[in-house]
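Hi again,

Forgot to attach this to my earlier email, sorry! This is the prediction with adenosine-5'-triphosphate bound. I've pasted everything inline since the attachment limit keeps bouncing my files.
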Amino acid sequence: MLECRQLVRIYREGPQEVTVLDQLEMTVSAGERVAVVGSSGSGKTTLLNLLGGLDRPTAGEIRIAGQTLEGLSESAIGSFRNRHIGFVYQFHHLLAEFTAVENVSMPLIIRGYRRNEAAEKAMALLERVGVGERGRHKPGELSGGERQRVAIARALVTDPSLVLMDEPTGNLDQTTAGSILALMDDVAARSRSAFVVVTHDRRIAAHQDRILTLDHGRLASEA
Ligand SMILES: Nc1ncnc2c1ncn2[C@@H]1O[C@H](COP(=O)(O)OP(=O)(O)OP(=O)(O)O)[C@@H](O)[C@H]1O
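Structure tokens for the complex follow:
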């Protein structure tokens, strides 16, 4: 499902070069859930941005669902992402002028769902993450944790083949985080989505099939 070969990301700051990812190798199968842990600044967000095609590697190859990202134009990566990848990033990027239901419906409408059908599916997911009664509100009227849950619903609503999550439960209490884990279980079981979850939360990490630790630009298996 996901394969990285000799992935390198070097940041240049004037004359300085910082190698954040160094010949990194990673494989995730369909339906498999992987946690990525590592100290602050170890490159976890950098890795997620590369996997989602938001940033380009300095060298190396990323293959998702049989497609190599290298060589795709920005717009081709954009439409590939819409079809295959669900994202939860630290900044949620919800559309401010749309309600929670509309935000979660959007990826379905892009895929050709009718508005009513999309809204129904979106609402069911918002209910699953405990914000059903906030569905008619815009992001500015929601708390940080509520916005985060809307972003999680939006990432999962299309049953994407790959889900990328950066600290998905960072703002959430234990009970709410538990309901997110249950939803991830459902999605993984139903649609064989692969998950890559960056987290500092040991409970979230332990819930995945494998834990990979990012250290000195490489991934080592922990469990
Ligand atoms: N655009 C950039 N230009 C230069 N350096 C960058 C850039 N983005 C990230 N870095 C550096 O790359 C390193 C890895 O950053 P990254 O955000 O990937 O770490 P992280 O593991 O996600 O950290 P955290 O757990 O704190 O979120 C850091 O040293 C950071 O300062």
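The longest strand covers residues 16-28. The pocket of adenosine-5'-triphosphate is lined by residues 11, 13, 18, 20, 38, 40-46 (CB under 6 Å).

That should be everything now.

G.
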